[in-house]
Predict the structure.
Amino acid sequence: MKVAVLLGGTSNERPVSLVTGEAVIKALRDTGHDVTPLDVGPDIAATIASLKSAAPDVVFNALHGPRGEDGAIQGVLEWLGLPYTHSGIRASAVAMDKGATRILLAAAGLPVAQGRVVTVEELAEADPLPAPYVIKPVAEGSSVGVEIVRAGDNRRAEIAQTWRFGKDALVESFIPGRELTASVMGDRALAVTDILPCETAAFYDFEAKYKAGGSRHVVPAVLPQAVTDRALDYALRAHQALGCQGASRTDFRYDEKTDTLIILEVNTQPGMTPTSLLPEQAAYCGIPYPDLCDWMVREALMTR
C-alpha cells in the first residue's frame, strides 16, 4: 500500500511530530508499505503538490498541535479525497478546543473539572477561580503553556501579561492526585496507565512528557478494578461523544482520597513514538508497534 506520512508541521509540537513521524515511517516500511515522508511546512500549496505527486492510497497524519490536529490539515485531505488516519474535521476541531470539549463531555454526562474560558484581561484583573487552579491555552497540546496557580502565588498578573496563546485561556480547578490515561482503538478501550513525573517536575508538563527520564509509565495502573473500569468506560464514551475515529487517548486526574476521576482532555493525535503512551498500552494488549501503525492505515481505508 502507498502511504504518505505527514510529519513536522509548524506548531510548537513540531519536534514531537518529527520523532513520531520517523518512528511511523520505519514501522510502516517494516510491515511492507511503500512510504513517502512529507515534512509539512508553512507553504500549504507545496504540501498539496507533494501529496498529488505521491498519489498515496492513504495518508498517515503524524502531525501534532494547531493545523495538524485541529481540523485544518484534515480539511485539506478531505478536499483532495485522500483517506487519512485519526479523527475527521469536526472531532479534531472540537477536541483541540478545550472549551468546546468541556461542553460536549459534560453534555454526555462525563466528569470535567470546574472551570471556564476567560479573556486574558479578566485573568489580569483577578483570580477567576479559588486557588489552586490551572491555566491552559485553549488550543494547544502536550501541556504547552500550562500553569498552576496555588494559594499565595503572585504569578497570575505576570502570566496574563506574557500570555502568547491568543486572547483567551481556559481556567480549571486543580485536581490533586494521580495522572492517568487510557487509549482507545476503534471501539475498544485498551488499558489505563499511571504516569509518574520525575521528582523535579512540577506536574506532567512538556519536559516530563518528552525529556528522557522525565516520567515513568506504569501499565496497567495499579488501581481498584472499579476505577480501572470507570476510566476505560469514560475513555470510550469520550471518544464516541466527540466523534473520534481511529485511535484516541483520554487523560485524567484521579484523587484517591475522594475517589474522584476527572477528564482533563481528549487527544485525537496521541503521541506515536514506540515508547509513547498509546503504543505502550497497545503492546500490553498484545499489539506490537508495527501492527498498531498498520492497523491505523487499514482502518482509515475502511472508514473513509
